[in-house]
Amino acid sequence: MRKIYRALCKAEVAVCGVGFMFMVALVFLSAILRFFRLSMSWNIDIALLLLAWTAFLGADIAWRSGQLVGVDLVTRQFPKKVQKIIEILLYFIVLCALALIIIFGIRLALTEYLRKFQSIPVPYSLVTISLVTAALSMVLSTILKIRRSILNFNKKEIQGGAK
Q1: What CA–CA distance (Å, rounded) separates 119 from 45?
Q2: pLDDT tens-digit profile of 109-122?
């Protein structure tokens, strides 16, 4: 199971990196072509699609690796045990929010299926489904964070008390 999860994480990083590089190349190409008064409207639509996928997958990568901004100005004054309880509680709140994002994202993707991009015959729901995909991945990451926090609940308390 861990090998599958690690492979999914590596695939997510690869897709995000390649998508970002293509997005930058397409926007740069579009700017160069406009300088020569040539227009390729399809590359802006593709860049929009790549932006959605890279942004949402990147959010999961940042969430999984703990790179998102956190504000602990108030909670750092609490005892370690209370901090861990608040952390686990917040993970459950994030889990509930992600469940709502998945439910309403699927609904939106189903309604957006008929809408197409302006210059390419691709359903706009591909943009919306990127949010659902990233939210599903974030659910898995959050469940693992909750599991890790619960397993290390007393262990970190002992280490914190020994300092």
Answers
A1: 7
A2: 998 888 888 888 88
- Name the region of 66 (left: φ>0; alpha: ψ -120 to 50; beta: rest): left
pLDDT of residue 160 exceeding 80, the answer is no
Strand partners, 123: 116
- Categorize the per-residue pLDDT at 11 as very low, low, confident or very high, splitting at 50, 70 and 90: very high
Using the predicted structure, report yes or no on whether residue 79 has a pLDDT greater than 50.
yes
Is the Cβ–Cβ distance between 139 and 98 less than 8 Å? yes
* Inter-residue contact 131 to 53 (CB < 8 Å): no
Gap between the Cα atoms of 25 and 87, Å rounded: 40
Q: Would you call 116 helix, strand, or coil by DSSP?
A: strand
Residues across the chain: 163
- Number of CB atoms found within 10 A of residue 129's CB: 21
* C-beta atoms surrounding 33 within 10 Å: 13
- Residue 72 pLDDT > 90: no
- In angstroms, rounded to a whole number, what is the distance separating the alpha carbons of residues 23 and 50? 6
- DSSP 3-state assignment of 123? strand
